[in-house]
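Bench log. Compound arrived from synthesis this morning; before running ITC I wanted a structural hypothesis for how 1-O-phosphono-alpha-D-glucopyranose sits in the protein. Inputs:
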Amino acid sequence: MKKVKKAIIPAAGFGTRFLPVTKSVCKEMLPIVDKPTLQYIVEEAVASGLKEILIITGRNKKIIEDFFDYTPELDSLLEEKEQEDLLKLSREMENLADVYFIRQKHPTGFADAVMYAKPFTGDEPFAILLGDDIIYTEQNCKPGIRQLADSYELTSKTTVAVMNVSDDYIPKYANIKAHELDERLCAIEKIVEKPKLSEKFSNDAVIGRYVVDKSIYGAIEKVPVPKKGEKYFTDALGLLAKEGMLNGYKFEGVRYDAGNKLDYLKANVEFALRDKELGADFWEYLKKLTEQSR
Ligand code: G1P
């Protein structure tokens, strides 16, 4: 059994759904309360024991690298002022994980981005975490990607996160046909990227957490290059499904799609309500606001 120790985070997209801010601030750095969305993803990987992380960036993403670097001017100022709490926050990312970067040369999508990880992952299985999906888990629950990694380590099959969604969300996500193996695990028979509602297999969607091994590279290579647009990562997963090598895992936790404005706002509200310093005051404010609008 091979242990999952590495993670990759594709982060080369333009973030067009958040224009105009994404003209100069990349979407991975948009905050949920006070932390960039990317920090939540890295923290989930680290809490899952995945401390070697490759971030696949692109042009105009330099601020991501800066975020993981140390900031001597700021830190010495905070030291001088004896602001220990703030200093701790400033240094949080420096030693959290071994973070590596590579640039995707052309914005040719998710499947192509994964190919950049080949030298980093070698023969080892690895996790893929998409930055738009935030999974919140309670203290007594394993982090989202750990749940998938545990399942992979038992089955040695590529494992993707699955969630039941309402019809409105079907055309936004990969959709699966599967049969249940146990309460959480299912064997995926078919998978399709963003189907029309009339073509859905089920209401089970794949969200941005995957544990794969080197078979994914061969599968991506086999997907034909379309005349228009990009190769879909989902089509590579489809090839694994045909071989009976793809499982879905119904994870425990609350998932937010930080890639669309409404869910991004919901994430901000819910994380703010959970915040020890802000939560109570923010709740009072929301209560007043809803009373006024009645
Ligand atoms: C990507 C994947 C899709 C998956 C989704 C989950 O789509 O291509 O299969 O269901 O993430 O968030 P995107 O949101 O980048 O369009």
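What the model suggests: The two ends are 58 Å apart (CA to CA). The first strand starts at residue 6 and ends at 10.
ITC booked for Thursday regardless.
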